[in-house]
């Protein structure tokens, strides 16, 4: 750790599940939070002064209630080290509780920052293991850290992950409604078990989802996004969502689904259709009396990084 040096970390938003890949698949999006940190010797980590701009400015917690600080503390503990507190400045572009990976971004940036402060005792794979363990599932953590389209399994505290590049001519149109939906609530509506026919359906869907990405065949996306494990149960928590998805497809998207656990809806679209797709999705939410806005995003291929 170097006194007075400013450490800067950039972390991407992520979209988890991608329809049929519940708790396993995720993608990294070109929308970033930035964490700046200047260590102050003698200051305790939990006394770190946090200032912020952008999303959720009034909701930034302090001390161990802050996910970045908590992740820093856990990472230092795993290394058997102590790190001091300091002055932290957050540039938040990822909205809270909207299905775009804000909690993974916070945890990953805390783990990554602590690792930098300690002289990098951990490799990227360790950073992923620590982040996924804190999150409880790896589908946002893997793309936040590795970038691209990721498949990830968490077993016995260790993540196995693989990433592939996302075709650069595909765009993500994320339409973000003006209400929050917390992951716990969106998980609480899911059944505890599923029928064999539902399991078989999703095995088929996820196979074609992988083919869509690996062979760059967007025409397979509509099969890959056709999930029966979580999407049908969550649509009722997102007024207008059915219309938003069908409007996106009618406007020329390859396919659309709930982003993560919602309430954002993500459409995959060719570049020349993206504006029309976004407008059609906002109209769909309006039919459910929900205001929303859309962003047309590139995919991030790099994951978290020091800048
Ligand atoms: N796979 C998770 C879910 C992502 O759908 O509940 C949200 O954190």
Question: What would you say this structure looks like, in words?
Answer:
With 307 residues, the chain is α+β, with helices and mostly antiparallel strands. It folds into two domains: 7-165 and 301-306, Ribosomal Protein S5, domain 2; 170-297, GHMP kinase, C-terminal domain (Alpha-Beta Plaits), CATH 3.30.70.890. It is 34% helix and 25% strand. The chain is built from ten helices and eleven strands. The chain has helices at 67-79, 102-117, 124-135, 141-146, 183-188, 196-214, 221-224, 231-234, 241-250, 274-287, and strands at residues 7-16, 25-39, 49-54, 86-92, 149-155, 158-164, 170-177, 255-258, 265-270, 292-297, 305-306. The strands form two sheets. Strands 1, 2, 3, 4, 5, 6 and 11 form a seven-stranded mixed sheet that branches. Strands 8-9-7-10 form a four-stranded antiparallel sheet, covered by helices on one side. Helix 1 (67-79) packs across helix 2, helix 2 crosses helix 3 and helix 9 runs antiparallel to helix 10 (274-287). The protein is globular, with a radius of gyration of 19 Å. 50% of the residues are buried.
Query: Helix content range of the residues, please?
Result: 25-40%
Q: Under CATH, the topology of the largest domain is which? A: Ribosomal Protein S5, domain 2
* Quaternary organisation of the protein chains: single chain
Under the CATH scheme, which class of the largest domain?
A: Alpha Beta
- Which consecutive residue ranges, at least 5 long each, have pLDDT under 50? none
Instruction: Count the E strands.
Output: 11
Strand fraction:
25-35%
**Structural class computed from helices and strand pairing:** alpha+beta
Can you summarize the main beta sheet? 7 strands, mixed
Mean pLDDT across the residues is 95
Shape: globular
